[in-house]
Amino acid sequence: MSAGRSGRPVVVVTRRLPRPVEEQLAREFDARLNADDHPLSAVELADALRAADGLLPTVTDRLTAQVLAVEPLRARILANYGVGFNHIDTVSAKARGLVVTNTPDVLTDDTADDALMLLLMVARRGGEGERHVRSGAWTGWRPTHMLGTRVTGKTLGLIGLGRIGRAVAHRARAGFGMRVIFHDPSPPPAAVVSELGAEPRAGVDDVLREADFVSLHSPATPETRHLIDARRLALMKRGAFLVNNARGDIVDEAALVAALKQGTIAGAGLDVFEREPAVTPDLLTMENVVLLPHLGSATHETRIAMGLRALENLKAFFAGAPPRDRMA
Ligand code: 8YV
Predict the structure, then answer these.
(1) Closest residue (by CA) to atom 4 of ligand 1?
(2) Do residue 96 and residue 196 come from a single domain?
(3) 89 CA to centre of ligand 1 in angstroms
């Protein structure tokens, strides 16, 4: 096992993490923390791969084939902070002998809550109402003011019924009396689906045609890039809403903007963006769009749990044991 001067493995932690996580990382490893929390450049990432035994990266670190081609490569593990790892070229990582882990489970509930928050906000015009009050434009209650769309009893279409999709289905059915339909190319066991009361559909298109709300819960892969494009947006009901807190590039953002402008769909709730943190400027001007800054897992509890889970993966790896959340 390679190690730093302290005799412990050197771990570069690419962003500020909640204090209890940083403290524990500093106890367990020769941890190199990012005191000013700046996003690392490609050059800094390459330097980290040369200098450390392990990296603890986040969604803001683009670990591309080019970055991973660094010589000499010292790092042997990328213990990602987050469940999604589309910012890591896992094929290149594997080719370079790097183990990749993620942090599933611990963020499921909070991310599901975030999807429901987007759904409710866009249906009930939450963001718009907030802006209205803050602007001083509110003149008082009236029966026809800012009417939204009822959620209870409506059909929620889930694209993806993994851990987060299932937690969304449960909340929507139990809390809001919604009917839940879904498509997932690798669905959970039939018993899980029937316990959730979710109805399978043969394809994404079938879900889009039928749902009043569509919520995306697929991983970002080459296959799911622009899964929601102009053709599929046109299949949605005119009064339907799109919710995305999975990954931005699952939606063709330009096509979404066009659909919103043309009234092809009624609105969208977005926590993630195709060119994050850049947001297509047109979206910023639309009242029927809710825009959140990638808040899916952003609670104190979950961000600590994610850090401890990444730390657990690093500890196992450096102890010579298989890390629990190995992805590649
Ligand atoms: C994380 C996420 O905050 O886990 C994920 O995939 O999208 C977020 O909840 C982010 O990825 C941290 O790196």
Answers:
(1) 82
(2) no
(3) 16
Residue nearest to atom 12 of ligand 1 (CA): 82
176 and 42 co-located in one domain:
no
Residue range 263-271: average pLDDT?
A: 98
Sheet holding 54-56, edge to edge: 30-32, 10-13, 54-56, 77-79, 99-101
Bridge partners (DSSP) of residue 180 are: 156, 198
Quick one: 148 and 46 in the same domain?
no
End-to-end Cα separation, the chain, in angstroms: 20
- Strand-pair partners of 155: 179
Q: Is 302 in the pocket of ligand 1 (CB under 6 A)?
A: no
Say how far apart CA 297 and CA 306 lie, in whole Å: 9
Measured in angstroms, how far is the CA atom of residue 249 from the centroid of ligand 1?
A: 14
Residues 198 and 130 in one domain: yes
- The per-residue pLDDT for range 102-156, each reduced to its tens digit, is 999 999 999 999 999 999 999 999 999 999 999 999 999 999 999 999 999 999 9
Atom of ligand 1 nearest to the CA of 297: 9
Residue 267 within any structural domain of the chain: yes
* Contacts with 35 (C-beta within 8 Å, 6 or more apart), sequence order: 16
Residue entry with tokens 């670190």: 61
Is the CB of residue 296 less than 8 Å from the CB of residue 107?
yes
Tell which one of 14, 37, 87, 107 to mutate to probe ligand 1, the residue whose CB is within 8 A of the most ligand atoms: 107
Q: Which domain holds residue 181?
A: 108-291
The verdict on whether 276 is a catalytic residue reads yes
Looking at residue 198, which CATH number applies to its domain? 3.40.50.720
Q: Are residues 120 and 91 in the same domain?
A: no
Asked about 145 being catalytic, the answer comes back as no
User: Is the entire prediction scored with pTM above 0.90?
Assistant: yes
Out of 199, 276, 312, 326, pick the active-site residue: 276
